[in-house]
Amino acid sequence: MGGLSKKIFQIESLTDQHKEDKLLLDSGNLLFKRPSVAAGPSQERLTAQTIMQIYQNIGYDAVGIGPLDMAAGIDFLQTEATKDFPWISANILDDHGQPLFPQWINKEVQGVQVIITALSAPPKNISPAVKVAPWESILPELMPRLTKESKTPFIILLSTLSTEENRLIAEQYPTINLLLGANQHQRNASPRLINNTLVTQTEKQGQYQGLLEINFGKQRSWGQNREKQIADLQNRLGSLNWQLQRLEKKSAKSASKEKYSRTIERLHKDREEITAKITSLQEAMAQEQSSDILTDQYKYRFIGLKKNLPNDANTEKILQNLNQRIRQLHKRPRKSQNTANSKAPFAPGHDLVGFRVCESCHPTQTEFWQTTQHANAYTTLAKKEKNLDLECLPCHVTRNLFSTNHQDLSKETLLSLPRELQSVGCENCHGSGKKHSIDPERFKMIRLPGKNICLICHTPEHDDNFEYETKIVPISCPAE
Ligand code: HEC
Ligand code: HEC
Ligand code: HEC
Ligand code: HEC
Fold first, then answer.
1. Whether the CB of 456 sits within 6 Å of ligand 2
2. Nearest ligand to the C-alpha of residue 435?
3. pLDDT digits (tens, 9 = 90+) for 270-324
4. Nearest CA to ligand 4 atom 33
């Protein structure tokens, strides 16, 4: 959440000059970082509600619904407080096949009718009363309805589908003018023209803003790439001609001509189609040169979130309120956890809580840590059947690094560690976290663990080429 009020400041200043003719769009996956979130009040739910509030405040026009937005269920997106949020999705349906959200919205920009629709990728798990229909069954019925909305609508599709699916959609539906993706596996992707659809995506989680400036022409097609389109088509024509020649030669020599006739016929058809396309593109280009701009033109920029941007004051207030509510939330359940923790195996003198507690407030860092070898350090021992060896355990588990309490390294402690401590955990680098977990604002953790901490385990004996500057890189948790 750290960057959110900077991001809002950035968006507001970027769009300031274009108050009337801007669209604020998000393709989705903005609420949660995990595919499924437990029921009941939690930091994650409070945070998600706050994100919706902030987006609504600055006037987002439309937001697609991604699988990560459905992590707390569809109901979570439809409460009294969030019912005015501009969610759209063409393919989230109830059990009668009726859409649960607006399938599209209409906006007028620079005198052009802009239609925004959205497709959601299916989430990992969802209530049986909700269906996320595949695009193949939605678009054939939806697209004719959209193109009827106006004579020359500009159609935008927000999509959390895969890059491959987006490509297929662009190929099959050239009436979609712009496809904004938000899948989890792609970074900033510069606009790319597939037939007549411009496809682009901005990196996930608000690290970048994508700014696309469009000058609408009289026709709905993109201008810039005409020449390239023609060149591509001519290349294809060349290779088709070559294929045809080869096949026709073979067929002439062959005794069974019907073996080739079907393919030859198909290639002839393709050739006709491509030739027609080239002619129409050339005509359009000639017309363009003799009149006003006919086609749509675009410029784009990806703008990184910078640490030195000021915070947006309103957003900052909302976030402070969120922090307060999170603290209240954590004060209550923590009491009972403390009593549980005071029992062994969290031995006396321990201020360790284990990574599961950190995860509840730092899901991003926890998810990252789980991809490092530190998370497997105990398993490594177990595989060698050394997980009961007191000589090995101290560097392959979570322990209180600064404790002079011998009990922390005692046989009793090391051999009865709970699951959450059977790994080189968060607290090995950031310090013991019991107090911080109760009141994070008052009790700070070590943010950047120094070399001295690593060297407790990365001794020359066990890691003969330990170099802090290089080894810190692959294990540094991401921000936010
Ligand atoms: C409590 C002991 C301990 C501490 C403290 C510790 N490490 Fe490690 N580290 C290990 C062990 C054990 C492994 C090997 C784990 C395995 O392969 O199962 C390891 C592995 C690594 C690796 C290889 C990781 C990978 O994912 O391939 C890097 C890099 C590393 N440590 C860097 C650091 C740095 C930098 C610090 C200090 C900020 C640090 N470690 C602190 C015990 C520790
Ligand atoms: C002083 C701390 C320390 C002790 C004690 C220790 N290790 Fe490690 N161990 C490490 C570190 C640090 C690494 C990671 C080294 C690297 O990244 O190159 C590691 C890595 C490993 C690995 C994975 C890499 C490899 O070399 O295959 C195994 C297996 C391993 N240790 C087994 C053991 C066993 C068995 C014992 C007990 C006999 C033991 N360790 C005791 C710190 C320790
Ligand atoms: C091997 C050491 C190591 C381990 C283990 C580790 N971290 Fe980190 N963590 C780092 C480093 C290095 C940074 C980067 C600090 C910086 O660049 O300022 C960091 C940063 C962080 C930050 C601050 C991010 C920010 O800039 O806002 C948090 C929060 C955090 N880690 C939580 C965790 C949690 C939770 C775990 C366990 C699930 C964990 N870390 C495990 C080394 C570690
Ligand atoms: C109740 C929620 C909560 C829990 C549980 C929690 N943290 Fe934090 N943590 C926070 C908040 C909030 C901040 C930011 C504090 C600030 O900026 O004033 C923070 C900041 C941090 C930082 C950055 C340095 C700092 O203190 O500002 C690190 C590192 C960190 N946490 C690690 C951990 C680790 C490791 C655990 C588990 C032992 C943990 N946190 C458990 C809420 C929590």
1. no
2. 4
3. 899 889 888 888 887 777 665 555 677 777 777 777 777 788 888 888 888 888 8
4. 358
- Name the token pair of 10: 């950035």
- Sign of the CA dihedral 455, 458, 461, 467? negative
Identify the bridge partners of residue 208 per DSSP, sorted by sequence position.
304
Instruction: Choose among 155, 126, 151: nearest CA to 23.
Output: 155
155 phi, psi to nearest 5 deg: -105, 130
* Cα angle value 114/90/106 (rounded, 5°): 20
Q: What is the pLDDT of residue 184?
A: 67
- Which are the contacts of 383, defined by CB distance < 8 A and separation ≥ 6? none
Q: Is the CB of 147 under 6 A from ligand 2?
A: no
Name the residue with tokens 């959209």.
Answer: 146
At residue 343 the predicted structure's pLDDT band, cuts being 50, 70 and 90, is very low
Write the DSSP symbol of residue 189: E
- Distance from Cα 436 to the centre of ligand 4, integer Å: 6
Interatomic CA distance for residues 147 and 140, integer angstroms: 12
Nearest CA to ligand 2 atom 29: 380
Contact of 199 with 188, CB cutoff 8 Å: no
